[in-house]
C-alpha cells in the first residue's frame, strides 16, 4: 500500500522490516527492488532482485524485476539474459500479458546492445558515433531512431547504410 501511494521511504522501511522477520521472503526482496528502482538506486535494486531470485528461482516476476534493474544499471547484456529467463516463467504462471511486456523490454535491451555494437564498430574504423540516442515512448507518433553508418562495400568504397529500427521506452 505504501509503495502504491508513492511513499517510497516508508515502503522501503516496511520491506526491510519484513526481511528482518523473514530473510527468505522473495516477495519482500522483489518489492524492495521495485522501490529502489523508483528512488533511483538501480545497483541496490539489482542486489535486492537477485535475493528475490535466489529465494524463489521459479518466480517470473522476480526475474523480470532483476532484468529491469540490470537494464537501469546499464548492464544490458545481463538484463537481456534475465528478460529471456523471465518470459517462460511468466508464461508458465499464466501471466501472458506480463510475459509480452517482458518480451518487449527484452527487445529494448537487445536494441541497446545492437546500437552499442554499432557505435563500437564505428569507433573501430575511426568514425565518431553520434553522442546521443533518443528513445521514444510508445505514445509518440513517430517512434523510431535512425543511425547512419559508413561501411565498406564490395568494391572497397564506403557507402552509408541506414540502420533504422523502432526503439521503445516503456517508462
Write a structural description:
By secondary structure, the chain is mainly alpha-helical. Helix content is 59%, strand content 9%. It has helices spanning 8-21, 26-38, 42-55, 60-73, 76-92, 96-124; strands spanning 145-152, 158-165. A two-stranded antiparallel sheet has the order 1-2.
Comma- or semicolon-separated keywords:
9% strand; disordered C terminus; 2 strands; 171 residues; mainly alpha; 6 helices; 59% helix; two-stranded antiparallel ribbon
Supply Rg: 19 Å
**Strand order across the biggest sheet?**
1-2
The biggest beta sheet, please?
2 strands, antiparallel
**Fraction of residues in helices?**
55-70%
Number of helices: 6
State the separation between the terminal residues, measured CA to CA.
21 Å
Average of the residue pLDDT scores: 80
Structural class, please?
mainly alpha
